[in-house]
Design goal:
The complex is a heterodimer. The longest helix of chain A is centred in the C-terminal third of the chain and has 39 residues, at 368-406. Chain A is built from 20 helices and no strands. Among the domains of chain A are: 2-97 and 446-505, no CATH class; 174-223. Chain A is an all-alpha fold. The termini of chain A are close together. By secondary structure, chain B is an alpha+beta fold. In chain B, helix 4 (57-68) runs antiparallel to helix 5 and helix 10 crosses helix 12. Classes of the chains: A mainly alpha, B alpha+beta. Chains A and B meet through helix 2, helix 3, helix 4, helix 5 and helix 7 of A and helix 1, strand 1, strand 12 and helix 13 of B.
Chain lengths: 514, 669
């Protein structure tokens, strides 16, 4: 294991060394960073600018030697003094890199997590309903999103989701009947396709879902709910109980009474604490407190699970913990919704809450909830854009992998020995189907760090992509190399992590035995 | 590569009024290059003031005399003499206070601010100049008709003598920086000292990491100005520190735009020289300049060069003092700057908008969508067909669209020193023959067609530019076009070109190597149009485009004709001669005309705008009749503003573009 790691690290080191060398040489022959300086007409100022840049970028040294000067600055990282050089505006690339990396992580993290959760879910469901209408529809949609150009999706989403939705909110947030009916029918169809069983049962459930959706939509339109959305304790309570039941059904089976009671108790605890929590949220809320709350909730859930005891107390605790996290999420979202109207009416927002550009609204004053909402309204479009594109990858891979696993002999064995369908799918098939996704994830993270260039441009974020792009247009070597180094590092590190994850997930694979 | 050239060029001094356009992208992309020239000029472009010349000079003079009071009595005396008060533009006089101050607006720009000192070589960019224009009171600025207006409520300028050229600047006694320290002559002293080059003892050096300086005993200000370099004696400060008098060693026709207000001297005095308060800091600075104290000046220059660089709000408030209409109150890295009205400001035009948010949105289409979504109220996006279409679609939502010209213009030059088709040497020294070939080539250039095919889709009001030296719309442009002879070259004339070639008796086809920016689509299209047209008359155009075309311009061995853009940053006249006079620093082509050289000498000594125009016309007559080259069009610019929230947005082709009249803006939100 250690030798494997050492071998991989050493190999990676030389790979990065070689790759940066090639990139540096290519970059230095791509164009002249002095181009802008040559464009200055005043000869004195032109000479001054050329002399400055020549010194700063060592243009009087041949590219190969210049690479080693650059490498020396980077080598400083090992002794805690990184030097990424300066850009053509004589700013330190290191400090720009710091803020760019921060913004990229902000942008990419949410998109990756959401894409994985939704992608894998969709993939598994379509695998279970192979060759159904749902399967075809979802396949069609994911491929459609996959093949759309990012900048176009970005512009389109801004037009439809931000601008039109804001217009809709400003117009009073009332839908017309056609929309209510169409939306209800779509939801009904979704429910029809999702549930299994006899056609009669499917139709019934689909119709019920459509009716409920119709009623909800009508209510939301009539009360202009979207202008001042909130769930309230009743809805939160219903959702919490549903989550508890659903988590149990998924993880333990509702026949496991101890798990069910653990989850339900956790949900009830959440409902009871709902009102007191509002006071807690009101005073000096911050991100750390929120994180603390989550930890406390999980611990409480685990304790509840153990107290119910039984042979499988670990499973009960796990079920309760997941329930706690989701119920916590619902309460959090409810609290965010309560801030919505205040946020939307802020003069800095002007009744148009969904933003199309930059990571935040200028000059917005407000507490934790207002600021969080602001981040959400700015993140939602770029996240959606990135997510739609990578959704296809995750859903197709997990679908294929799930189908392959479902056709394995041991699945048949599991079925034949009388295990419930839930156990077969969740315990035996799903877990093994996840293994190949480790590779996809590793590649995807590297690509997302580097590949968000267009998304950043379209949404006015200054992150890794713009560092790279601005560097390229100015033939500015240091920002480009900084970008390249970071993406190369991420790619290499995540590849190693993927290999290790493989070994951990799949007992058939052992690292170091070669 | 540029080392020997750099040294050679350093020796040459010329004032800057033009900058090559950025090769890679039209319009705003030239941001990065726009300002170099402005160390002497973009500062000058700044300022305030409004109603385009509506107030008379005499009324302004008297009001300035009255308002500046006390020790600035000298300005009062200059006020009685209009000519004397004109020394840095037409004095504006008192500005009307807005009926009420309130509301807010948000504007977008495509590049983030990075230096509070835009007089340095690296800080000199539109990205810095625009925000500084909101914060800093200006000695002078351009109005809608590109007249140079002097904000005489802030600084009055008196031409003391023409020979030797002596100009006296007097700062309004009430003017102060936002930390309460007065703005006075010591700030102008610093501006001169940094740009004159007088105190520099060596070139700016950087260490291995590229960080400027730490060199013992070397003073190197990263700033320069052709005009101020001619002021060799340390200027004298008088009137209790309110006035400064500059004496030029030789006459300099562009003296009105030579001196601008820069960074506050007392801040450098406190940060670099350790002074305790503003007054002693000013004294320490002035003493250092007067005594030429190298040890102190080194610290001053070091701080001046990089001390004011920041990309987010610094914790030290002294680094972003305001002397003008707005105070910088917030600056979030790569996102926005917030400006709030300076309540103390009464030495110039007062804005009516309480708060301006200046957002950075690099992508043109993103800024248009932000405008549509109400996140911003004004944008000046890079002009493309898509962007123009998108803003035009917003007109029914109350968006005003200004289609206008920018500061960069496209032109074709021909090499006369490379033994190519345009060089007399090719024809055994027959100058007339070479001129006929050049004239024939110019006649093949389809100027109208280029404008209608490539520019009109971006600016429906576009026309050809018909002057080498004057920005369309600037004073004298119409008269220039009537007289300079450009009418003969209005559009492609294939028959005429053929006649000329026949007359010259050269063998066709004539091969012409054509240099332009390889990565620029518009120039590629221009090349194709010119190529097709020239072919009909017997010219074979060879694509000699390169990515390093800028560096290769002086190397006429590799091309016969070039196509690129110049960028104007002010209306100064002297820099024109660098482009055209014999051995001018930007005359790479070996062009030489005795008539033009003589006109340049006279132009440099011309004291009145009328004389200047007269000599400029002489220069252009020589250029057009000698078939030096041709000018084609002015780059298009688009300004879109949400008229429901922001009114009175105007645009001029010189920096600061749409911001020039920010005090006239009104808001309804």
């Amino acid at each position: 294991m250690l030798t494997f790691l050492a071998r991989r690290l050493i190999a990676s080191f030389f790979i990065i060394l070689g790759a940066t060398f090639i990139a540096y040489i290519l970059m230095s022959y791509a164009g002249d960073p002095l181009n802008a300086a040559y464009n200055i007409q005043d000869p004195t100022q032109r000479a001054q600018a050329i002399a400055n840049l020549t010194r700063v970028l060592h243009l009087d040294v041949p590219p190969v030697a210049r690479y080693f000067i650059w490498l020396k600055g980077i080598g400083g990282c090992f002794v805690g003094h990184c030097d990424f050089g300066q850009n053509v505006q004589l700013q330190s690339v290191g400090s720009n890199l710091g803020s760019a990396l921060g913004n990229t992580l902000k942008l990419v993290t949410a998109a990756t997590v959401v894409a994985i959760v939704i992608g894998v879910t969709v993939g598994v469901i379509t695998a279970l309903r192979q060759y159904s209408g749902l399967d075809y529809t979802v396949s069609f949609l994911t491929f459609l999103f996959f093949s759309l150009p990012v900048f176009w999706v970005g512009i389109l989403l801004k037009e439809v989701i931000a601008i039109k939705y804001n217009d809709f909110l400003q117009g009073g947030a009332h839908y017309n009947w056609a929309i209510i009916i169409v939306v209800s029918l779509i939801i009904g169809f979704l429910a029809y396709s999702l549930v299994g069983g006899a056609p009669r049962r499917k139709l019934l459930i689909g119709a019920a879902a459509a009716v409920v959706a119709f009623a909800l939509n009508w209510y939301m339109s009539a009360t202009a709910w979207l202008l001042d959305p909130r769930l309230g304790i009743v809805v939160v309570g219903i959702l919490a109980l549903c989550i508890a039941y659903g988590m149990t059904a998924l993880m333990a089976g509702t026949a496991n009474r101890k798990a069910l009671y653990s989850a339900l108790t956790t949900a009830v605890l959440g409902i009871v604490l709902y009102q007191p929590l509002q006071y807690f949220f009101y005073n000096g809320m911050n991100f750390l407190k929120l994180l603390g709350l989550l930890v406390v909730a999980v611990i409480a859930a685990v304790v509840i699970g153990y107290l119910f005891g039984g042979d499988d107390r670990g499973l009960s605790a796990r079920t309760a913990a997941f329930t706690a996290v989701l119920v916590g999420l619902v309460i959090f979202v409810d609290r965010l919704m309560r801030a919505w109207q205040t946020y939307s009416n802020d003069p800095a927002i002007g009744g148009r809450p969904l933003a199309t550009t930059n990571p935040s609204t200028p000059n917005l004053d407000g507490d934790f909830w207002i600021q969080t909402l602001d981040t959400v309204t700015h993140l939602i479009l770029p996240t959606l854009t990135l997510m739609l594109i990578s959704l296809a990858g995750y859903s197709r891979y997990s679908r294929a992998s799930m189908l392959e696993v479902l056709n394995q002999d041991y699945i048949r064995t599991a079925r034949s020995k009388g295990l419930t369908e839930r156990t077969v799918i969740v315990r035996h098939a799903f877990r093994n189907a996840l293994i190949p996704l480790a590779t996809v994830l590793a590649l995807d993270v590297g690509a997302l760090i580097g590949g968000a260039v267009l998304t950043e441009t379209v949404f006015g974020w200054k992150a890794m992509g713009s560092l790279f792009q601005d560097g390229l247009t100015n033939y500015d070597p240091n920002p480009v190399m900084a970008f390249f180094l970071i993406t190369a590092l991420v790619a290499v590190v995540f590849n190693i992590l993927a290999d290790l994850a493989y070994a951990a997930l799949d007992p058939r694979i052992r690292v170091g035995s070669a | 590569m540029g080392k020997t050239r750099a040294v050679a060029l350093t020796a040459l001094v010329a004032s800057a009024s033009l900058v090559f356009a950025a090769c890679s992208s039209p319009g705003q992309a030239s941001n990065t290059t726009s300002s170099s020239a402005s160390s002497s000029s973009s500062g000058a472009v700044t300022g305030s003031g409004s109603d385009t010349g509506s107030s008379s000079a005499s009324s302004s003079a008297s009001s300035s005399g009255g308002s500046s009071s006390g020790s600035s009595g000298s300005s009062g005396s200059s006020g009685s003499n209009n000519a004397a008060g004109d020394a840095c533009g037409k004095p504006h006089g008192a500005y009307d206070a807005p009926a009420k101050v309130g509301g807010s607006t948000t504007v977008a720009w495509n590049q983030s601010f990075y230096s509070y000192n835009n007089l340095t070589g690296h800080g000199n960019a539109v990205a810095n100049t625009n925000p500084l224009y909101l914060m800093e009171a200006q000695v002078n600025y351009y109005d809608q008709d590109l007249n140079l207006i002097n904000n005489d409520q802030f600084v009055t300028c008196q031409l003391v003598s023409q020979d030797p050229l002596t100009v006296k600047y007097t700062v309004n006694k009430n003017a102060k920086w936002s930390d309460g320290v007065p703005v006075d002559a010591s700030d102008l002293m610093l501006s001169w000292a940094a740009q004159s080059g007088k105190y520099n003892t060596g070139e700016l050096k950087t260490d291995d990491n590229g960080n400027p300086i730490p060199q013992p005993n070397v003073v190197a200000f990263d700033a320069s100005s052709t005009g101020l370099a001619l002021v060799k004696d340390t200027p004298t400060i008088s009137d209790g520190g309110q006035s400064i008098t500059l004496k030029y060693s030789t006459f300099f026709a562009d003296y009105p735009i030579a001196l601008t207000m820069g960074v506050p001297a007392h801040v450098i005095g406190m940060k670099a020289l350790g002074a305790k308060d503003g007054a002693s800091a000013k004294t320490a600075m002035n003493t250092a300049f007067q005594k030429d104290d190298k040890a102190a000046l080194k610290k001053v220059a070091d701080f001046y060069n990089t001390g004011f660089d920041f990309t987010e709000l610094p914790s030290d408030k002294e680094l972003y003092l305001s002397s003008g209409a707005y105070l910088l109150t917030d600056f979030k890295k790569d996102q926005y700057m917030t400006f709030k009205v300076n309540p103390d400001y009464n030495w110039g035009p007062k804005p009516s908008i309480q708060q301006i948010t200046y957002r950075f949105i690099p992508d043109a289409m993103a800024s248009v969508q932000a405008l549509q979504n109400g996140e911003i109220d004004m944008t000046n996006p890079q002009a493309t067909v898509d962007v123009l279409g998108a803003v035009n679609n917003l007109k029914n939502q109350g968006v005003d669209v200004i289609n206008t010209i920018g500061s960069t213009y496209e032109h074709v030059d021909m090499a006369e020193n490379n033994k190519g088709p345009f060089d007399p040497a090719t024809y055994g020294g027959d100058k007339a023959k070479a001129q006929q070939v050049r004239a024939a080539f110019i006649k093949t250039i389809p100027r109208q067609n280029i404008v209608s095919r490539l520019i009109k889709p971006l600016n429906p009001t576009a026309t050809t530019r018909d002057s080498f030296t004057l920005v369309p719309g600037s004073p004298g442009y119409d008269e220039m076009v009537q007289q300079n002879g450009s009418a003969n070259w209005k559009d492609a004339d294939i028959a005429g070109a053929k006649d000329l070639l026949a007359k010259a008796g050269v063998k066709t086809p004539v091969t012409v190597r054509f240099l332009f920016a390889k990565d620029n689509t518009r120039r590629q299209n221009e090349f194709k149009l010119i190529q097709q047209s020239a072919q009909q008359a017997g010219f074979t155009l060879v694509d000699a485009s390169r990515t390093d075309w800028g560096a290769q311009l002086p190397n006429t061995k590799i091309y016969d004709a070039s196509l690129f853009g110049w960028q104007s940053t002010n209306t100064g006249v002297t820099a024109n001669c660098d482009n055209y006079k014999t051995k001018g620093q930007n005359n790479f082509y070996g062009y030489s005309s005795a008539a033009l050289d003589a006109a340049c000498v006279k132009l440099n000594a011309a004291t009145t705008p009328e004389d200047q125009l007269k000599y400029l016309i002489e220069i252009e007559k020589a250029l057009w009749s000698d078939s030096f080259g041709t000018v084609i069009f002015q780059f298009p610019e688009i300004v879109a503003s949400n008229s429901k929230k922001l009114q009175n947005v105007k645009m001029i082709p010189l920096s600061p573009g749409p911001f020039w009249n920010f005090w006239e803006w009104t808001t309804t939100s």
